[in-house]
Amino acid sequence: MRLLKTSGLVIDNKVTAVDTNTHRQFEPECDIQHTLDQIFYDSDITFPELLTLWRATTKFRNYLVPLGYKLIEIDFNTLYPNLKIKDPSSRSLFEQLKNTPDTSENGKHAIIFCLLHAVFVPTSKKVTRDESGKKNQIKYSVKDSINSFMIFKNTVAEVEDYTLMLRNGNQPIQPFLIIIGTPINPQEILIFFDCIKYKLFSLKTAVDTCFKIFHLFNLKYPVQSSNVWLFIQKFFYSLTTKYDKPYHNLGQILSDLNTI
Question: Whole-angstrom Cα distance, residue 248 to residue 193?
Answer without folding.
Answer: 30
